[in-house]
Prior knowledge:
Elements: H1 21-37, H2 43-54, H3 58-71, H4 86-99, H5 105-111
Helix pairs in contact: 1-2, 1-3, 2-3
Amino acid sequence: MDNAAVVSPIRKNPCGKPVSSDKRIMIVNAYKSELMKNPNITLRDCRIVISKNLGIGQRTVSNVISEYNTIKTVTSPCKTRQKKPIKIYMMIYNLIQFVDMSIPFGLTRLFRH
């Protein structure tokens, strides 16, 4: 057996899942190290190399790098739920039906799918 280092396979980030703050910092550090290795590398080539090395999508890498270049910091992803629970919509709908009011135009968008 050779003295070659055994490298574990890259664990890819699942599609649709947010990238954590730690991984965002890893992207920025990889970006900085690629720039130190090759100062003339284009952003596109750098993005492809980082994406392959870290197992994160090219678009995510591009967004994190552009955010870092403009703000000089990395923000953590918002993990709070944007959509209200269905119970609230059902309570509003039942209340409107109980009062026997017609549904205003603004609330009809909530119940259409």
